Amino acid sequence: MSKGFYKNRRLKSLLFLSACFLLATIPHVFTIEGFVYFILALSFVIVFYGLIVISRNFQRNNIKNTSSTKVINKDLPIVDILVAARDEENVIARLVERLFNLDYPINKLNIYIIDDGSSDKTPLILDRLSRQFEKLKVVSRSPNAGGGKSGALNYALKFTYGEWLLVLDADAQLKQDSLIRLFKFVEEGDWSAVQLRKSVTNVSKNFLTSCQSMEMAMDAIFQYGRLSLAGVSELRGNGQLIKKDTLLACGSFNEDTVTDDLDLSLRLLLSKSKIGILWDPPVMEEAVENLNALFAQRQRWAEGGLQRFFDYGDQLVTNKINYLQKFDLTYFFILQYALPIISLFDLVASVALLDSPIYWPISCTAFMLSGIAFWYGSSCKSEVPVLQKGNFLMTFVSVFYLSHWFLIIPWVTIKMSIFPKKILWRKTLHTGV
Predict the structure, then answer these.
(1) Quick one: which of 169, 186, 342, 419 has the fewest CB in 10 Å?
(2) pLDDT, tens digit, for every residue of 105-124?
(3) pTM
(4) The CATH fold of domain 66-292
């Protein structure tokens, strides 16, 4: 797409921020008859649809485990594994060694590591690994090549020739039979793309990593339910399998966004390509271990999440998707992006005007649904447990942890509305521990 396509993001951010401000403050300034009943009715709709989405996961327990079905090697497709790596000296060797130990025909598996301008020992480690593993393909880019992870993946695409692409982060860990089971799932569901459930390796490191583990399980619960109910699901960057022809037809990876996975998810939806969600086996990764890293990561996710709706919003209201999909996208856009901003302005107006908050029923409803999904996702049978020991207290505390989004979303939207955009990809440090 042309650069001009993205020029209106700043204006759209400002309009969105202004709309949220008006929605939050007008009920405090003017008396709107029956408005409280409207809020209660909206809260009921939110909880009703949310519970239906969560309940759709019950059917997942009745699905036959893909590991129990034998797959004939000659039926397996050629798959290219792509890993964009910048300054990954702590984890890159472990990843490569484990990828070459996967249960998959070696003549149908191509592994590409893109050294994206690393300044640490990553190039030296990759040079050693390329001599150890003859089939390892190392692709190098200069530090100022641009495009971030998307640019690195697009650059590597020209060297690939497989039917499918599996995109992994450098800290990814897969079970030995993950690929075979993944393609059995593809065969059964006729998917154009599949996202593996993400799981945390350092779950017991501290409070933050435990909460992130539960958050990933909660996300998978909602993703599976949305897919089952409305046909809407999203990629999550690490552990995403995509049919190469489908990716190319959608325009490859978008280098003008900070979250290539979320952007691609909407383009796949608009092209009527189905994204499957696979609970087990998961892809395992490190959770960030401190608040600074968490806020940096979540700001990028928030910005990329908003960018996609600003970029493709006009297409989402057309007949390219059905009414239930439009409702689902609107529902989660309100809960994920509009509600945090409205709630913050609502609170500020309440304090300034010595009034009571108005939108608290919707916020409470959203937190309640998250708590249910937290608890259910943590208690579901999983090959990699979400928590070593789950309990209701941890669920309650983790719901409180989600309140950080009510600070991040407004802050990111304000920044997007005021400051000229510079596409910056903030790297998450992987320790390998």
Answers:
(1) 419
(2) 999 999 999 998 888 999 99
(3) 0.90
(4) Spore Coat Polysaccharide Biosynthesis Protein SpsA; Chain A (3.90.550)
